[in-house]
Amino acid sequence: AKQQGRGIVCFFSAEMDRATQDRRELERDLRAALDSGEITLAYQPVLSASTGQITSVEALARWHHPVRGPIPPDLFISIAEEGGLIAQLGKRILRIACEEAMDWPEHIKVAVNISPMQVHAGDLFKVVRHILTITGLSPRRLQLEVTEGLFLRDIDHTFRELDQLRTLGIQILMDDFGVGYSSLSYFERFRFDKVKIDQSFVRQMLASQASSAIIQAVVGLGTKLGMGVVAEGVETAEQMAALVEAGCTHLQGYLFSKPLRSAEIKACLLANARF
Ligand code: C2E
Ligand code: CA
Ligand code: CA
Ligand code: CA
């Protein structure tokens, strides 16, 4: 048994070395990819629940590795965070999103995901202001999506960063609400423009009374506090009907559209598509 135990340990550490090795390789390749145009953005429409019109589009990072093909964003974003590359990658993403949004109708906003480390770095205000200036995008058209992970550190400082960012005239959205370290007291200190209910609640709402009650509670809170409530991960007409009934103000999900390439979203927006 001892023999076997050691074998398992060896097996695990070999596996771990390989995983570490793999991440190191990806980190090296990501460093190179930052200058080579391998990082692109896909865009997923967000609709008004009352009119069915597209009101904004979420930018989602894509990395097509020359040998390995597409790498999931959750993976390469976390590699970028660990390897100290997130500031540079984040700037690149913001810049592409603002540039591409300049080609869309003016009433369409663009939402960009922001990693907690980008906020904690302390220069996000300057970065955003600079990118708005060089691209010419109106601040009214930019939304930043932040997650609860942001508030694990330096909470007062973090809220001051958000206050300052908002003086630019941009919107701040709370993403993936309800699954991380959610605290209702965040809303006491900061009024987000919108709250995005995590898609796990949407997925379970028709089967789980708890999920559906949580969605209703978030909608009630959002409505009282003047925050829009976005349901993401909407995949079926039944979910849509329940979410509209619950009072969600905006909807996003495969039911309406998968994330689209830059040229596709542009064509879709210029055709004034409605769902
Ligand atoms: P997220 O911000 O919560 O983005 C939503 C994810 O759900 C996206 O996955 C989207 O493609 C997927 N999705 C949208 N509708 C549906 C649906 O109806 N059903 C299902 N099953 N999934 C749906 P994606 O593109 O793989 O991104 C995963 C995560 O990676 C994002 O979650 C976000 O946390 C992170 N991420 C992506 N792009 C960026 C970025 O530019 N910067 C940062 N910091 N993080 C990013
Ligand atoms: Ca998001
Ligand atoms: Ca989300
Ligand atoms: Ca997520």
TrEMBL record:
It comes from the Bacteria. Residues 23-273 form the EAL domain. This is PAS domain S-box-containing protein/diguanylate cyclase (GGDEF) domain-containing protein. It comes from Sphingomonas rubra. The chain holds residues 570 to 844 of 858 of the full protein.
